[in-house]
Amino acid sequence: MESGGGAASTPRTLPYYVAFSQLLGLTVVAMTGAWLGLYRGGIAWESALQFNVHPLCMVIGLVFLQGDALLVYRVFRNEAKRTTKVLHGVLHVFALIIALVGLVAVFDYHKKNGYADLYSLHSWCGILVFVLYFVQWIVGFSFFLFPGASFSLRSRYRPQHVFFGATIFLLSVGTALLGLKEALLFKLGKSGLSQNQTHPLWCLDITPTP
Predict the structure, then answer these.
(1) In the CATH hierarchy, which fold is given to the domain comprising 14-203?
(2) Closest C-alpha to 91, from 122, 117, 66, 110
């Protein structure tokens, strides 16, 4: 959970890039919420709408918050290393918890309704990404926050941590897009899918509210 240290000059254009990334991230979260609310019936835990908790949590946790965690060392490069390290870790903690809620929601929904788990490419990619993210989180905590790893060991592992962090983030974005595409395919093929009862929630013919 650590990147390179030491004070460095901040590029003049960095604040604009950061502001754009935050605007883009918040727009994605807002659009996901609006899509679920207007076209998927909304969000509720104890109902058929429990499944909708899944995409919203995954977008917030593994896309928006994980992306912000990766930006910490760029945005606060002149702050104390311990401060940026803690902020980086806290954002990842929230991302992990929210993503875990999203996973629990989809598995619990399947269990309540008797549907099969892990039946699509998106679901397998999602489990892979979450496992990789969890392993990255545990290893990062052990190396950079737990007071046991030596400085030389941290220095050797840091490049791998940065590389896998960026890779897992890109995989998270790709998996989210794959899930949205899967939802579209379910919607387009709602007749056949309703008969097979693969995932009837996506087949609900819900029109947007005025």
Answers:
(1) Four Helix Bundle (Hemerythrin (Met), subunit A) (1.20.120)
(2) 66
- What are the sequence ranges of the domains in the chain? 14-203
Taking the CB of residue 136, how many other CB atoms lie within 10 A of it? 18
**What stretches in the chain show pLDDT beneath 70?**
1-10, 148, 189-210
**Cα–Cα distance for residue pair 26/60, rounded to 1 Å:** 9
Q: List pLDDT tens digits, range 151-176.
A: 888 888 899 999 999 999 999 999 99
Contact criterion met (CB below 8 Å) for 126 and 175: yes
